[in-house]
Design goal:
131 residues, mainly alpha, globular
Amino acid sequence: MRRAADAHRVGRFQLEAAIESVHCDRARTGRVDYSALATLLAVLVARAPTLGALVAQAAVAAETEGLEVALALLDAIQHAERFQPAWALRAHLLTRLRRDDDARRAYDKAISLTTEPPLRAYLVERARALG
């Protein structure tokens, strides 16, 4: 019976699809349901704590729990020192906190880890906007 119950458990890919659905719903509603994202990401992180899921959880925490909480979540992620999205999010959060020098360093690190030209150009532009 336990095996049958486990077979009906929602898995990582169903959770990721539900998260994408919440993001897609923004086109219809004009807003992001951060509460739903926080719930879905909490379950995803409990089941599959990938770097991407952990960084996404920190990004959503910035909107639901505050910027400092989001930074603390980023700091707690292990093995993210070479994960570009973590550095890009850190730079964004630090910019919002008006910690421009720290944000500039985080943007520099994110840029150094970026190989896609359009994304690199965006990050360079954001870093330059800090002055």
